[in-house]
Design goal:
Structural class: alpha+beta
Distance between the termini: 9 Å
Number of strands: 26
Strand content: 35-45%
Oligomer: single chain
Number of helices: 9
Radius of gyration: 20 Å
Number of domains: 2
Helix content: 25-40%
Amino acid sequence: MNAKSIKGKTKNEIQIALRDSISEKFKPTLAVVFMSIKIDHNEIVSILDAHSIQVFGATTNGEFIDEELGSESIAILLLDLDSAYFNIHFETYEDLDFRGAGQRVAHAALNVFSQPGFLISGSHMETDAEAVVRGIEEINGNETILFGGMAGDDFMFKNQRVFTNGKESMQGLIALVLDNEKVEIKGRALCGWKAMGTEKTVTKSIGNHLYTVDNIPILDLIAKYGGIDTSPQNEKLLLEMATLCPLQLIRESSTPIMRPCLVADWDDRSAFTSGTVPQGSKVKFCLPPDFDVIEEVISGCRDLKEQEMPEADAIIYFTCAGRLLTFGPLMEQEIAGIKSIWDVPLVGMFSSSELGRAKGGNLELHNLTTCCIALKEK
């Protein structure tokens, strides 16, 4: 599989970059498109569609190719891959049946491939992405190969979007399904946030709607322990909840996972988290990681290459928008480090939450995490 990455800020720049990329030896059939919500995605899809290129698309909180960070731009990974080796499936969940959407994607994938691997993205901040993942896993099995990240909207936290040829949704799920008998998919989720203080108990929750912890409304608790203004007047509240005082869900049988609050409900001072927080479960607040986490991520990807994926054709990289806010320009150092490991075309986005497996772990919904995915045609 041949791959090339292109970028731009306008329709014309993408037209030129695509024209310069296509040749007799490189005729892409698939495009992974990460782009700003502020740019008309229909124009970009139209350009790709004219060349019979199928699109896996999501809006972001920032996008990049190779080690170059972008803002309000378009980053595209072009893949010259036999169209028989992949399918794109699209589902919506206006009815809030997140698990059902995942199940439908999995059924559709198994109708095409006996061993599907999934790259997914979804839109809307209230989406229970963990329920989506569990829906896919229920149909496809516990060994499901799945990675991805939830769409963003340049930190506005209002209208994220996923899209493909002729379809789009602000409450939808897009899945790039690859035939794992033809395309090898390896990836790893890497975090590093440190819990602080004592364990607290979730006393009321429904799915990813978190009402109270220790019988205190979650927004009141965040104000108390995080020193954050949790009033509707605080325009930076969602960013501050996600990056300055996120929650970590403690599990007895596996490693903790991050569950920051992403949407506030002012009526009862509850909040929506990115994934399920079961009633009765234990949580802690967290502090942002130190800068040495960047080297930990690079080291983790280096281990992925040495242990599982010595060669790759392309890299797809989902990393949490909260990490961009924490590390700023130092993220270029991390991305350059990842790029140097395999030295193949790379595209990435700053996501709202991440999906994948840590080393030796289960398939999970993550936050404030990086998911690095390597692809190699067999």
